[in-house]
TrEMBL record:
Catalytic activity: Release of an N-terminal amino acid, Xaa-|-Yaa- from a peptide, amide or arylamide. Xaa is preferably Ala, but may be most amino acids including Pro (slow action). When a terminal hydrophobic residue is followed by a prolyl residue, the two may be released as an intact Xaa-Pro dipeptide
Lineage: Bacteria, Pseudomonadati, Bacteroidota, Flavobacteriia, Flavobacteriales
Protein name (record): Aminopeptidase N
Classification via SUPFAM superfamilies: ARM repeat, Leukotriene A4 hydrolase N-terminal domain, Metalloproteases ('zincins'), catalytic domain
Location of the Aminopeptidase N-like N-terminal domain: 31-189
One annotated GO biological process: peptide catabolic process
UniProt organism field: Flavobacterium lindanitolerans
Family as reported in the entry's similarity comment: Belongs to the peptidase M1 family.
Length: 689
């Protein structure tokens, strides 16, 4: 049965592979309209294509769409709509052809309508093969087309798409935005983003315009959200050795995006989690994601892997070049530390993950991070000069085409005598992680040697390593060495480690001070004034740690700490505000007259008016305060239907956990009749698996 099912699932892929050889789609031009009240998209589409050899049926991927007024070469033509494909079997001829039609769809995925009215955002996430849910296109990545989209929408909103903005015209209460690509690309890289955005621009060293967008309410955060933006672009263009191929580059964050970012051609969409102010920048920033998605404009967009088996040629390259960009910005020690941490993750994962890199079923960790390590091994063994020469030739030879691992390794062979066959066997076709080879490369860096030396002391008593620790904590060694020292001291009595702790407290490095805060759960009253200085650090994470510790350890002074932190908001998930409200509610005798308002505010954060990270944070804290609060139990149901799978999974897992107890199960059974159908259906499955 499994074999039969597998064969059936392969049929569409085989058909499209055959079509790719016989039909060449050249251009798609579409005029689109969006209706957020019905979550609908409609449009008029024109395709040009060339029939290269005889074919019975031409297929265009189109999920749950309705079609009308279809013409091939200006003649009304019969067609079939399978619900998954638009199938043409009449009207076309060998040579050049034109296809026109109108369509409408109510996409259940890929095109998302987030928020309402002034806070509405509309955005897409094609992720490999899903653009066909909102635009009749091709799930087959080997079919590359020149796209042009013209989008009509409310004149008060910004509309973004791929390529150059050719025109914006007024149409009463709407504007029509016309975007045009000049070169072909795979369908999964087509995008839309609509919202009330603020915009800033700058120009790269080679003259490419960079457009940066933020929600208007976040307009004060351009500097730190897009820090080093131009420097990253200039570095990658120079390091890769091939001019940026698309003419313009824009970036826009959206609410409740499904991933960190997505490298749509010319127009990256990324998560609002990376929109930060000066303090938030120190806790979480966009730099690595920025560099990763930009690198994809070459590795993935300019050249695209022929199949999932070769996916590392996209994600491994993007991950590695992002690390190289960080090395340019932050130095060799930072670069080697990132590689070391990746190596640790890969070594740990290899105990259970047995799927090799050159396999379409490999994990994301393998594709991204083992792929990056494989490239680092290549670069170290053949030299940076040869590596760059091979990459440049590889990109130029296969520009706007599809590639396999053999194509890339052939260019490595052309510049060196390195044994790529053995490399492929060890790094691409074998599971596991080559720890010895990785460590051999890492140990060339002095900082890594220092770190490994400190790590080797973990089981030694403090007396044997105290002198080394005392000297190292005041040295200029890169901060992870100092973090490791503090972690090793975590279970040591405060009196024994106090001199080292006080030296670490003098550090200007936020990460070192944060490590002190993390590892000091208990300390004497005499040290309290020193610990309280963490409340003023330029880190929302450090502030959260310190407030938690002080509130817990000194209950008589809880009001003092709540007064200090009263106006804190924190990161995009409102970590500090939600923590403050939780503490205010949990602190006996603290402003009893305001507790109802504090509860209402915290409960409000669980509603669909907020991003999923805020909602999840608020639900978690309210359950901590009172696990029987029916308002919170009900607030867990709506997330079951949320488009962001991470949030939906959180809600499912929490309800499964709660309903192991009969009283919670009975509550949800009684709630069922009052729920909307979509929520009811999922909750019923959870209650009756």
């Amino acid at each position: 049965m499994r074999r039969l099912l597998y064969t059936f699932l392969l049929v569409p892929s085989c058909l499209f592979s055959q079509q790719f050889q016989k039909v060449d789609f050249k251009t798609l031009n579409a005029t689109l309209a969006l209706d957020p009240s019905h979550k609908k998209i409609s449009g008029q589409v024109t395709y040009t294509f060339e029939v290269l050899s005889a074919i019975d049926t031409i297929r265009i991927d189109a999920r749950n769409m309705a079609f009308s007024n279809l013409k091939v070469n200006n003649a009304v033509t019969e067609f079939k709509n399978s619900g998954k494909e638009l199938q043409l079997y009449k009207g076309f001829k060998k040579g050049k052809n034109t296809l026109t039609f109108e369509y409408e769809a109510f996409p259940k995925q890929t095109l998302y309508f987030i928020g309402e009215k002034e806070h509405l955002q509309i955005w897409t996430q094609g992720q490999g093969k899903y653009t066909s849910h909102w635009l009749p296109s091709f799930d087959e990545v080997n079919e590359k087309v020149v796209f042009g989209l013209s989008i009509s929408y409310d004149k008060d909103f910004e509309v973004l798409s791929n390529g150059k903005l050719k025109s914006v015209s007024d149409k009463g209460n709407e504007k029509q935005w016309e975007y045009q690509m000049e070169k072909p690309m795979s369908s999964y890289l087509v995008m839309l983003a609509i919202g009330k955005f603020a915009k800033q621009t700058e120009t790269t060293a080679s003259g490419t315009p960079l457009e940066m967008y933020l929600s208007k309410e976040d307009a004060s955060k351009f500097e730190y959200t897009y820090k080093y933006n131009k420097a990253i672009f200039d570095f990658l263009e120079k390091e890769i050795g091939v001019r940026y191929p698309w003419g313009i580059y824009r970036q826009v964050p959206v609410r409740d995006f499904l991933y960190g970012g997505m490298e749509n051609t010319t127009a990256t969409i990324f998560s609002e989690d990376y929109v930060v102010d000066e303090i938030g920048y120190n806790d979480r920033n966009y730099i690595n994601v920025n560099a990763h998605e930009l690198a994809h404009q070459w590795f993935g967009d300019l050249i695209t892997a022929t199949s999932g088996k070769h996916h590392w040629l996209q994600e491994g390259f993007a991950t590695y070049y992002a690390l190289l960009a960080e090395r340019e910005l932050f130095g060799e020690d930072h670069f080697n530390w990132q590689l070391y941490e990746i190596a640790e993750r890969l070594q740990q994962a290899s105990k259970t993950d047995t799927i090799p890199l050159l396999n379409e079923k490999a994990s994301s960790l393998t594709f991204y991070q083992k792929g990056a390590w494989a490239l680092h091994v290549l670069r170290e063994n053949i030299g940076a000069k040869n590596f760059n020469k091979a990459v440049k030739k590889y990109l130029e030879k296969y520009a706007f085409k599809n590639v396999s691992t053999a194509n890339f390794l052939a260019e490595i062979n052309a510049v060196s005598n390195y044994d790529t066959r053995k490399f492929q066997q060890v790094w691409l076709e074998q599971s596991g992680f080559e720890v010895a080879e990785a460590l051999g490369i890492l140990k060339k860096n002095k900082f890594i040697e220092q770190y490994l030396n400190v790590l080797s002391m973990a089981e030694k008593p403090l007396a044997e390593k105290q002198q080394v620790f005392a000297e190292t904590i005041v040295s200029d060694v890169y901060y992870p060495v100092k973090e490791e020292i503090l972690f090793q001291l975590q279970s040591v009595d405060f009196s024994e480690k106090e001199p080292i702790i006080r030296q670490a407290m003098q550090s200007n490095n936020i990460k070192v001070r944060q490590a002190v805060a993390k590892t000091l759960n208990q300390f004497p009253e005499s040290f309290r004034p020193d610990f309280e200085t963490f409340l003023d650090d330029k880190s929302y994470v450090t502030k959260e740690i310190a407030l938690n510790v002080l509130w817990s350890q000194f209950p008589d002074d809880r009001a003092k700490y709540l007064d200090k932190s009263r106006n804190w908001i924190g990161m995009n998930d409102k970590n500090l505000r939600i923590l403050w409200l939780t503490m205010a509610l949990a602190t006996k005798d603290f402003e009893p007259e305001h507790k109802p308002a504090y509860y209402d505010e915290l409960l409000d954060y669980t509603s669909p008016d907020y991003e999923s990270s805020i909602r999840q944070n608020a639900i978690t804290n309210l359950l901590y305060i009172n696990g029987n609060d029916t308002n919170v139990l009900k607030a867990l149901v709506n997330p079951l239907t949320h488009h962001k799978w991470q949030f939906s999974k959180f809600a499912r897992d929490k309800i499964r956990e709660l309903t192991k107890k009969e009283r919670y199960r009975l509550y949800y059974l009684e709630l069922l009749p009052s729920l909307p159908d979509n929520e009811k259906a999922i909750l019923e499955k959870l209650l009756n698996p």
